[in-house]
Amino acid sequence: MNDWLKKLTEQARALWSKWTITQKLILGGIVLAAIVAVFVLFRVSSAPTMVRLLGTPIKSEDELRLITSRLDSEGIAYQVGEGNVLLVKDEKTSMRARGILIREDLIPKGTDPWAIFDMERWTITDFERNVNLRRAITQAVTNHIEALDDVDKANVSIVMPQKELFQADQKPVTASVILFPKPGSDLVQNRKKIEGIQKILKFAIEGLADENIAITDQGGNILNDFANLADFDRLEKTKREQKLVQELETQYRAKVLQSLQQIYTTDRVRDLNIKIDMDMSKKFVKTEEFYPVTIKPRNPRSPYDDSVITPSVTRSKVETTTEWQGTGFNPEGPAGAEGQTPPAYKDLQNMQGKMTQKSTTQNEEINKRNIDEERSPSIQRVTVSVNIDGVWRWKYDPKGRLQVLPQGGIDRDYQAIPGDELKQAQSLIQDAIGYNRDRGDSVTVQNIRFDRSGQFKNEDAEYFRKQQLNQVILYSLIGLAVLMIAFIVFRIFSREIERRRRIQEEKRAIEQSMLRENAIRQAEEQNIEVSMSVEERKRLELQEHAINMAKEHPEDVAQLIRTWIREE
Predict the structure, then answer these.
(1) In what order do the strands lie in the sheet with 151-159?
(2) Which of 303, 413, 318 is nearest to 363 (CA)?
């Protein structure tokens, strides 16, 4: 490492010595510029980057808690400084957060958003102040609206008339906004978001009323005409109701299909039809009920109902008896004048009479119950229909071979589902959907054959393809076995022929060698010089060596010969 540094230093010195003064000055300028840039970067990075969300501290802890909770739900990072001052990372985030707080009515009371007007200058007139105020309000409102996620651009125009002496002559403050939604945004159809933008305008502009606000899209369509949106609200409500019914049907369908497909497999239970009728009306029901009094409740351990119930209980009872006895009173006219009583009643005036009158007043108490309930959307009727396919099985003959139709297909037998099993499946579905006969629920389970001609055609083709492949493999194995046997027989015959040829050649070589040796011996015995080649001498020496070895170690030579014979 030290050698490398030394080498690098030497190269730098050599290069520095070769440079001209101009090149050295350029290098010095570059180094100085880099040092200045690093210094500026450190100064800029060390400067605070957080900006205030609101111009004034938040005094109430409850308001601070509500604002921080809303910022957390929107995923906006913030810090709480000294004196409950909220800080965010940049101005864009601050505008977006302020727009959300204004829309949700979370701006603390006493907050002054127009800090720009705190500095007074002697050269500014009242007219200029009004113009600057209107421009500042317009710009602030524009920034707030454009900070929303659904708004790409907004054009805001505010008219603030001069104040008149009489209120009757005062013209209202008006505002018009043209919104350019972002692609894929539901701003135009979302009424809640339009109301939020309208609130931003009302809170930002003093004296602005709802009827003096016009919010349109880039096509000129009025978006805040809420009075004429009754039909739109009705359609939205209908869509929500239909979506609720569809979600409920999906839940029921998934529950029933899961239970049936686990029993009959997915292929046999492919689909299920379910229809739910719901009452979406909102009802307030007030009911007054009168019911009997239970003197003795039913004993749950008793096999029969032993309760004692009476329609009412006597609270008070008053009995009155009146008896009267004597003659009747027949009034006459004035003294000296005959009365007006008819002759028939005059004959009865001296008769005795008796009367007895009895009256009973009894107060009865009964149970009374007042019920006030609010009925939300409820299910009126549930209908379910499902088809379960039977089982197709292949036919086999008594020998266990698969039966094939004359047309070439596999013979199959269809086994339908028994009626008891269909009833069990129907009971399973009824329990899954909360079957209620009183409200008209209906559950239908049928066993109808599916059209499986295409499936059977593919199965037959696959089966016969496998059979054909098995036959090809079998015939290939037989042919390979025949070839191997033929090769082995050919190999045996070729080796036998080769062995016999080699034996004949060895025999001829031995005979020729013996003839030559005899000739050599005879020549030696007769003292005749015989010229021998080098190969013949080596062969002769090897032969003599083998003969000597056989005489000295006959067992080893015999073992060697056995080994040769075995290899052959």
Answers:
(1) 151-159, 173-181, 208-217
(2) 318
Structure tokens belonging to residue 177:
């906004």
pTM of the full predicted structure? Answer: 0.40
- Per DSSP (E only), the strands in 280-377 are 283-291, 293-296, 308-310, 313-327, 352-365, 367-375
**pLDDT tens by residue, 378-432:** 778 888 888 888 888 888 888 888 888 887 788 888 888 888 888 888 888 888 8
Is 203 within 8 Å of 102 (Cβ atoms)? yes
Q: Tokens 């030696």, residue? A: 524
State how beta strands 86-88 and 79-80 pair.
antiparallel
In angstroms, rounded to a whole number, what is the distance separating the alpha carbons of residues 450 and 247? 28
Reference 383, options 419, 427, 430, 452; nearest CA is: 430
Q: Contact 314/362 with Cβ under 8 angstroms?
A: yes
* Residue whose entry in the numeric block shows the structure tokens 């013949």: 536
Asked if residue 211 has pLDDT above 80, the reply is yes
Question: Crossing angle of helices 534-552/453-525, nearest 10°?
Answer: 100
DSSP state of 80: E
Model confidence at 56, pLDDT cuts 50, 70, 90, reads confident
Helix (H, G, I), strand (E, B) or coil at 195: helix
428-446: pLDDT as tens digits = 888 888 888 888 888 888 8
| pLDDT confidence tier of residue 177, bands split at 50, 70 and 90 | very high
Region at 326 (left for phi over 0; alpha for psi -120 to 50; beta for the rest) = left
Give the contacts of 96 (CB within 8 A, at least 6 positions apart): 76, 147, 148, 149
**14 alpha carbon, distance to own chain's centre:** 70
Q: What is the spatial distance between Cα 106 and Cα 60, in angstroms, rounded to a whole number?
A: 12
Q: Which of 404, 414, 412, 405 is nearest to 467 (CA)?
A: 404
Q: Give the number of residues written for the chain.
A: 568
Buried b (16+ CB within 10 A) or exposed e, 35-56: eeeeeeeeeeeeeeebeebbee
CA nearest to 195, candidates 102, 267, 308 = 102
Cβ density class 429-447: b for 16+ within 10 Å, e for less: bbebbebeeeeebebebeb
